[in-house]
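Possible race condition, two jobs.
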Amino acid sequence: MTNNDHASNQHVGSLPTIPTATPPVDNLENQSSVMGVESSTIVHRCKREDLIKKFSLALRGLALIFSVIALIIMAINKHSGWQDFDKYREYRYVLAIAILSTVYTGGQVMRQAYELCTGKLLLQQRS
């Protein structure tokens, strides 16, 4: 039988039949051990993701602390004469950036802490 004869025997809209093999009965014990390995891998992945989220929150908290320290140092830096930084526009710009940085980082810390505690997203992601 050639390929042309085989193609003419099949119907136009039918799918080719693929023989399916049943799993051997004696291999059922090995399947449970494979499932155990897969489930332990999933558990390890979940624990690792939780650890990454907690570490990320700790780093954001550290960034917030440094941001607040920078803001405080720049805000209380008062001198007289030419060292009076309030006279310089650049200093006011850097101070404004420090304020924005502190507010933004504080918001990120609060958002991530809320998500970590409740498991719910505070702000829905846009798709």
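Job #2 (started ~2 s after job #1):
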Amino acid sequence: MCKARYQIRILCLHQGIEGTVVKCHLETVNLTDGPRFIAVSYEWGDPNPTTNIIVNGVDTSLTENLQKALLQLRAMKVERVRADAVCINQSDNREESLQVRLMKQIYSVASQTFAWLGEPGNDGAAAAIVSMKPVSPALSQQSGSNVLS
């Protein structure tokens, strides 16, 4: 098995005080090594307006919806997150395509998956981060497939 095929980036959140900008750094991990991280599922939504976070010391633009999810995760003391918009180089079509093909494995290997439902008044959604139990391993057992195949 080619280990490089299973490399992904994880966002390592730096702790911060409520109301301060999100600061983080990216770490490359291999799914075959059993990395610990939380996958976050969220609505990409309207690409505008955007806001900035600091990634590897550089101002990085992202949607307000994802920034609010990261603020909530930081407040929950979550340290390692997989958030596609930041963890995948969106200007590299080849990387984006490879990473999309790994989505099943990413969500299967994640320690937990959280779904960001948004803030109150956002299309009627209540402000919430919902923890979803991993279902992929059970589905894989039923279908007889290996998660990392």
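The CA atoms of residues 96 and 147 lie 20 Å apart.
Logs attached separately.
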